[in-house]
């Protein structure tokens, strides 16, 4: 689920977009929900003149940021090349990827790596389960910070400005278990800060579970959330949940140590589960 910033501007604002910025502005309309656009649709949606759109599209085509398919356009191969370069140049990626693969191999579930980007979370690595359910998360997926385990983990360690923005922003309800009230959000946030763990049960997509833990670098700098994603059927009782939370906590601790973290580790899956049970946040009766 993509929650990109709204780019629908009024006519006066659109006309004020500098010429050099217009190709980049058009790129913001391409998203998983609508990956293909015609020239007419882009001009209509952006409010830019059709001739201006066409000039921008030709520049983007020239440098392979867009490719043409009949009368429509989709993102081009340049994004694949640049995306791979960004991943490879990330200092933590080379160290984190073997941990993600090991987590996937032991649990049989999808493992994920998410980072904070402005007021959103972004999944930058997704190691898909080899069999069974393949979850909705894909690399580059952006998420709001108020629901989902990785998002909640990122929020717990985010700067105060990001936290205040998230708590004050609207909180759409995606499923029946999406936490939307300020009381719910702050209770779960406090629990995550105290235990260094987060769990979500169908908050973004029905019948899915996500478990998350923090990863830190040198000097205690928060880097990312590492998580497991699975179908709800993977956790019929609290014991399966405890097993994977313990493994996830140990993985986050060991990975953080490899990235230079040397302070005490405060992850506490047992206390986390006790509190979830007390809050009646678990989807089953133990």
TrEMBL record:
The keyword Transcription belongs to this UniProt entry's keyword annotation: yes
GO biological process: negative regulation of DNA-templated transcription
Record domain IclR-ED: where: 78-261
GO molecular function: DNA binding; DNA-binding transcription factor activity
InterPro entries, per the entry: GAF-like_dom_sf, HTH_MetabolicPath_Reg, Tscrpt_reg_IclR_C, Tscrpt_reg_IclR_N, WH-like_DNA-bd_sf, WH_DNA-bd_sf
Keywords: DNA-binding, Transcription, Transcription regulation
Gene3D superfamilies the record matches: 3.30.450.40, Winged helix-like DNA-binding domain superfamily/Winged helix DNA-binding domain
All copies of domain HTH iclR-type, residue ranges: 17-77
Protein name listed in UniProt: IclR family transcriptional regulator
Species assigned in the record: Deinococcus cellulosilyticus (strain DSM 18568 / NBRC 106333 / KACC 11606 / 5516J-15)
